[in-house]
Specification:
Two copies of one chain form a homodimer.
Chain A (H helix, E strand, L loop, with lengths): L16 H11 L2 E2 H10 L10 H13 L3 E6 L7 E6 L1 H29 L10
Antiparallel strand pairs in A: 1-3, 2-3
Helix pairs in contact in A: 1-4
Chain A binds a DNA duplex (30 and 30 nucleotides) through helix 2 and helix 3.
Chain lengths: 126, 126
DNA sequence: TCCTCTATTGGAATTGATCCAGTAGTATGT
DNA sequence: ACATACTACTGGATCAATTCCAATAGAGGA
């Protein structure tokens, strides 16, 4: 049985790009391309680097929502880069994400309990 | 600041309907409407009951993938109900989901570490 | 008869994500 | 001078998933 193309093999946890960006930006302001490389290093995206275009779109969307603000940075050589920084709203959003992710973890634990309840499967669940 | 419509308020953990259905069906075969009420009781979907149409579509999709099989049940009074039961492939899928959900939990923990790293926020993280 | 609850289905519209192509500046090698 | 590669961003088209909405239909009660 091959579940490579089934969601049970783990491709449904997208939409967490936003908190990853918020967390990365909370360290220091940065531009899209750098953020792309930065989040690629996170084990979170291991093997599944987010689409570059999608990352830029996410940043633009976040700016529309007031979570970040941007300005052109022409100081470095090379093409102009748009520098993104967290707004206070973005910081608040990050704090909300902490609560939400904790809820997610509980919900996942709940599902795991359901799924493993009547299937001991030779290992004692701690 | 109002994040009701922001993904940070927790509406992105959909796509976990499938493991919820697999877990519920592993208890006993059931039909769509009953499954709907059953998963509504799970704290997992608290306040956000999955769309009925979407649940039926998910079941149909799962049958196409061979995870469940169905038959009409005319024994009870009222409209005919389509009874779904897990196939062995569906059981295997559930086992795969266990691994995937454990990975999800680790990834969420990783994100939480990132988000809370430099923001102690008056509470010591255990 | 009319309403409500059970039970399922299908189409339309919306949203989100990905794919792909294009533009542009700089640096390096030949 | 020219080709190439890397940095950096953008926009359109497409594809998949989700939700919204309307319809059908049996059974039971007021």
């Amino acid at each position: 049985m091959d579940f490579e193309h089934c969601s049970c093999s783990g491709k449904s946890l997208n939409r967490l790009l936003q908190p990853a960006l918020l967390a990365t930006l909370s360290e220091k302001p940065s531009h899209g391309y750098a953020l792309l490389q930065r989040v690629c290093e996170l084990e979170f995206f291991a093997g599944a680097p987010p689409d570059a275009s999608g990352l830029y779109k996410a940043l633009k969307e976040m700016e529309l929502e007031g979570l970040v603000f941007s300005s052109w940075d022409l100081s470095a050589s090379g093409p102009a880069r748009r520098l993104y920084a967290l707004s206070s709203s973005g910081e608040a959003c990050g704090r909300q994400w902490v609560k939400t992710l904790e809820t997610y973890r509980e919900q996942i634990d709940g599902l795991l309990d359901l799924l493993t309840k009547d299937k001991p499967k030779a290992s004692t669940r701690s």
